[in-house]
Amino acid sequence: MDETSLVQIKGIREGLLVSLGDAAWPVLQEALLLYIEQQALFFKGARLALEVGNQILKVADLSALRDVLSERGIILWAVISDSPTTESASQLLGLATRLHKARPSQEAVQPVKGLDDEAALWVHKTLRSGVRVEYAGHVVIVGDVNPGAEVIAGGSVLVWGRLRGVVHAGAEGNQSAVVCALDLSPTQLRIAGKIAVSPRREGKPQPEMIKLKDGRLQAESWHPG
After folding, report:
1. Which domains does the chain have, with CATH numbers?
2. Please, how many CA atoms are within 13 Å of residue 38, restricted to the half-sphere of its CB?
3. pTM score, two decimals?
4. Which burial class, exposed, middle or buried, applies to 88 when counting CB atoms under 10 A from its CB (0-12, 13-18, 19+)?
5. Which residues of the chain have pLDDT under 50?
């Protein structure tokens, strides 16, 4: 079974939420670790909340997983479960068992009219946690995208500021879409069907562009102007 059908990942305010599918725990754990290994660079330093549904897990199961993730530079901070046994085991290990979700709000912004395929939505403000901006064309943000904010575009996304939230460019399958920012460290980044999580960066940030090349997300310097 393809691990991508068992592991679903999305960005949340606190880091990453990983939802596991319906299978035996050893299968799910193997799928999760394989997924992480395939994108090790982007997971390194991530804070992870795990949603396991009805899986019945004991302290030993969760402790072993936490150790394995720690070896890969990943912090397991929460386990969300419908099982009282799993919830109790999580609490004994000091893991959170609830997420504090702010209700998303739709940003009141107006698109530029009459530009056909080059239509762009201009947002002249910082997007704060809980704000979601969605548009069928390009999205240009003059301001920051804070953790917990989300931008979804049918075309490219350009952020004249810091990108720290979740961004999905080419949401309708446009593989030529790109994501650009003056400081690019999103919680989660997607272009078309490809997904990545940025690593923690050190040193002075530089403008960057992320694009799809040969089926992989690749970063390169961006020279706006």
Report:
1. 3-92 (3.30.750), 105-221 (2.160.20.70)
2. 15
3. 0.52
4. middle
5. 1, 3, 102-117
